[in-house]
């Protein structure tokens, strides 16, 4: 090999090694940094309401606003609360509170009783907002969702008993537990 060719090959090899070394020296962003970037995007999708803020499931379609924990605003609020806990940045807490203020207005009209799609998910989310803020308004509304969920369960039990001819003993057992839960002072 000619000296010039050898020198050129060595320069290319050295440059390649330098690029590889620099690439491996770059740090992967931390989970916290990625979460902060996600929050920036989420903030760009929020919608102002009469009572606070909400977030559509599809940012391109404001009609997709939902109270479902699975795909709606409650999940965003939980994310913001966790980001506040991780960073101490009060703006995330303030935003979660504005979402909770809006969410509280939806509790009376919530049809389902489930966690991912229903009043239980609203109650869980409001309970988490209360745990972080200690604001009794969120606690009281969260407890109200529990009562409403129990009432919905009682109605469902009555319907099942009528439709399925469930044994009297089974229904009595469930009804007794339900009545004890409903009579608890929340």
Structure write-up:
Helix 2 packs across helix 3 (73-87). The relative contact order is 0.08. The chain has 7 helices and 2 strands; from the N terminus they run ααββααααα. The termini are far apart. Strand 1 and strand 2 form a beta hairpin. The longest helix is centred in the last third of the chain and has 29 residues, at 136-164. It is mainly α and 186 residues long. The model has no long low-confidence stretch (mean pLDDT 83).
Write the layout of secondary structure elements.
Layout: H1 3-25, H2 31-45, E1 47-48, E2 53-54, H3 73-87, H4 90-104, H5 119-133, H6 136-164, H7 168-183
Antiparallel strand pairs: 1-2
Short description:
By secondary structure, the chain is mainly alpha-helical.
Quote the average pLDDT.
83
Number of helices: 7
Order of strands, main sheet, comes to 1-2
Strand content: under 5%
Give the overall shape, derived from the CA principal axes: elongated
Alpha-carbon distance between the termini? 87 Å
Query: What is Rg?
Result: 27 Å
Question: How can the largest sheet be summarized?
Answer: 2 strands, antiparallel
Number of strands: 2
Class by helix and strand content?
mainly alpha
Summarize the amount of helix as a percent range: 55-70%
- The poorly predicted ranges are none
Order of helices and strands: HHEEHHHHH
């Amino acid at each position: 090999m000619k000296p010039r060719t050898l020198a050129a090959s060595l320069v290319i090899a050295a440059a390649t090694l330098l690029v590889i070394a620099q690439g491996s020296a770059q740090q992967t962003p931390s989970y916290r940094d990625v979460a902060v970037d996600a929050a920036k995007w989420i903030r760009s999708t929020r919608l102002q309401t009469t009572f606070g803020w909400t977030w559509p499931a599809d940012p391109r379609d404001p009609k997709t606003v939902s109270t479902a924990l699975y795909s709606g605003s409650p999940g965003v609020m939980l994310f913001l609360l966790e980001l506040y806990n991780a960073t101490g940045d009060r703006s995330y807490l303030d935003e979660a509170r504005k979402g909770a203020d809006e969410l509280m207005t939806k509790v009376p009209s919530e049809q389902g009783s489930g966690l991912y799609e229903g009043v239980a998910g609203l109650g869980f989310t409001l309970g988490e907002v209360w745990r972080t803020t200690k604001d009794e308004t969120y606690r009281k509304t969260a407890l109200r969702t529990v009562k409403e969920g129990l009432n919905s369960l009682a109605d469902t039990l009555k319907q099942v008993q009528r439709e399925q001819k469930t044994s009297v003993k089974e229904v009595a057992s469930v009804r007794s537990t339900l009545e004890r839960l409903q009579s608890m002072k929340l």
